[in-house]
Amino acid sequence: MAYIDLENLTKDYGQDRGVFDISLSIEQGETFGLVGINGAGKTTTIRQMMGFIKPSSGQAFINGNDCQKNSARIKQFVSYVPGEINFPADKTGETFLKRQIEKAGRGSWERCKEICERLQLDYTAGLKTMSKGMKQKTALAAAFCLGSDVLILDEPSTGLDPLMRDVFIDLIKEEKKLGHTVFLSSHIFEEIEQTCDRVAMIKDGRIIDQLTMNDLLHSKDKTYKLEFKTQESFQQFQALDYTFTDVKEEDLQLKININDQDINRLMDDLQHYDVLFFKEIKRNFEDYFTNVFKEEVNHV
Ligand SMILES: Nc1ncnc2c1ncn2[C@@H]1O[C@H](COP(=O)(O)OP(=O)(O)OP(=O)(O)O)[C@@H](O)[C@H]1O
């Protein structure tokens, strides 16, 4: 059994809404992203992992604990940031955060203050009067200050500006260094790319794809874009034995997919043609995600 194990997890709200047959295995120390558009099923999956809603069928386990039956035990080593934050009334950030540390019986106010400073959060403010961004920062401080073995974060950077998002990314990386396991949902490609070891894509309540980020970003299969100076070169080059995509006659441009081991052959070949430019198209998660979703739409 993996450290976090979702086995055919299903929550059926009727009319094809909910999540269906979600099976995911996450190892200890991994940072795992669940990515999907609005209404895809991210929150429903996470809430079942936290034991807040009962699955229609299937099970979720964290470190061998059934998330439904042993949710109290799970809370002893899991920090959670909900998608929608509802704080108790009449409290300042500070009283709330101190109470969270006390309730959890782990973490420290010193560490919490340090995180608040990095997030530029005024924790003396009243929770009720806090802006959306401040509330999000308070929830993050509460989650990260406990030193929990597992963090489960539902769209954790919602409401953060780009600078604070960078702080958040650093906090995740620090958790990773400590060997902690992170499960987060997001639709912010950059943060997924920078933090996640693996990603599952969810659409209409179903997992449609999974990938290892390293394989995507550091693949030996590369794509290059070329533009030729003359129509003649453009045409003759296409007679060679390569895989061409996005051929644009009018611009004399094309893309070529090639493995690193064939790059010298390509360089040699290019010397015989009038090439205006040649550049690598870097792979990124956003393009990958968009392609997967486009293919899904085409298959419907
Ligand atoms: N309590 C509920 N009753 C009925 N349907 C629900 C309920 N909660 C969620 N759903 C439906 O289940 C599906 C998945 O919703 P969910 O909130 O998990 O998606 P999400 O990926 O978290 O979306 P978002 O990014 O908008 O937060 C949606 O079709 C939603 O309308």
Automatic annotation (TrEMBL):
InterPro entries from the UniProt entry: AAA+_ATPase, ABC_transporter-like_ATP-bd, ABC_transporter_ATP-binding, P-loop_NTPase
Any Pfam family the entry gives: ABC_tran
Domain ABC transporter: 4-229
Keyword Magnesium carried by entry: no
Keyword Transmembrane (UniProt): no
Gene Ontology molecular function terms on file: ATP binding
TM helices/strands, residue ranges: none
SUPFAM superfamilies: P-loop containing nucleoside triphosphate hydrolases
Keywords: ATP-binding, Nucleotide-binding, Transport
Organism domain of life: Bacteria
Family per record: Belongs to the ABC transporter superfamily.
Record protein name field: ATP-binding cassette domain-containing protein
Source species: Tetragenococcus solitarius
